Amino acid sequence: MGLIRLSRRQFLQISGLSGGSLLLGGCGTPILENVVGEVSQPLNQKIGNLLLKPQKMVPEFSVDDIQPEALIVNTFRDTPIIDTDKYRLIVDGEVNNPLHLSMADIQNLPFTSTIIRHVCVEGWAAIVQWGGVKLREIVALAQPQSSVGYVYFQSADGYYSSWDIASSLHPQTLLAYEKNGEPLPVDNGAPLRLAAPIKLGYKQSKWVTRITLVSRLSRFQGYWEDQGYEWFAGI
Ligand SMILES: Nc1nc2c(c(=O)[nH]1)N[C@H]1C(S)=C(S)[C@@H](COP(=O)(O)O)O[C@H]1N2
Ligand SMILES: [Mo]
């Protein structure tokens, strides 16, 4: 598989990061400096192409369509207790730049908001506004290796799921920390959850604590997936 070498400017372009977004205020973590300082890091061409290629966008709804009461809390266990100040999102696996991000780090990345339909296989749906950071921003910061094809998400309640890399890099796939314009309620996955219009509800992991980029799936593919629910779960 061919590798491409990117200049600092090209990296910023394909990762969708503007120069201005590269300063993480207040946290003193030099992770972003590492990203831009090491210009010779090869970036996976497949992943590079996915980041460059316009993926098909799912039409979004308007603010008037939001159904604040329709989103039913659906959790296989109790809501986990997370101290947001101590919370760190780990991004690891087949990456050149593993990450350890506080919520402040994450909230300093470009903010995106999207109004989409959440669809649960149990027979309900809700139009919700989610606000947060595109997952692709965080994946790009971690500098995935050319081998990466899948992404595992681990949650604080023991839940887990896995996604294909293309869906993970879709521009409407967010790590959300806001719901309907307010801070994300803890029952809906605070401090950080997945939110994307391209996959069913059980792929939208709440309380995400660890994102691991891998080349192959193991026999564990997800809490519901391992009990027979479809793995890709596209909508
Ligand atoms: N960590 C975790 N994430 C999870 C679940 C869960 O039990 N634990 N349930 C999934 C299912 S089946 C659905 S429909 C949505 C529900 O999200 P909500 O509780 O914010 O409505 O969360 C998904 N993510
Ligand atoms: Mo669900």
Can you describe what's shown?
- This protein has 235 residues and is α+β, with helices and mostly antiparallel strands.
- The chain has one domain: Sulfite Oxidase, Chain A, domain 2.
- The protein contains 6 helices and 12 strands.
- It has a 5-stranded mixed sheet with strand order 4-3-12-7-8. Strands 5, 6, 9, 10 and 11 form a 5-stranded antiparallel sheet that branches. Strands 1-2 form a two-stranded antiparallel ribbon.
- A hairpin with a 5-residue loop joins strand 3 and strand 4.
- The N terminus is likely disordered.
- Bound molecules: ligand MTE and molybdenum atom.
- Molybdenum atom binds next to loops.
Short structural summary:
The protein has 235 residues and is of the alpha+beta class. The chain has six helices and twelve strands. 17% of the residues lie in helices and 27% in strands.
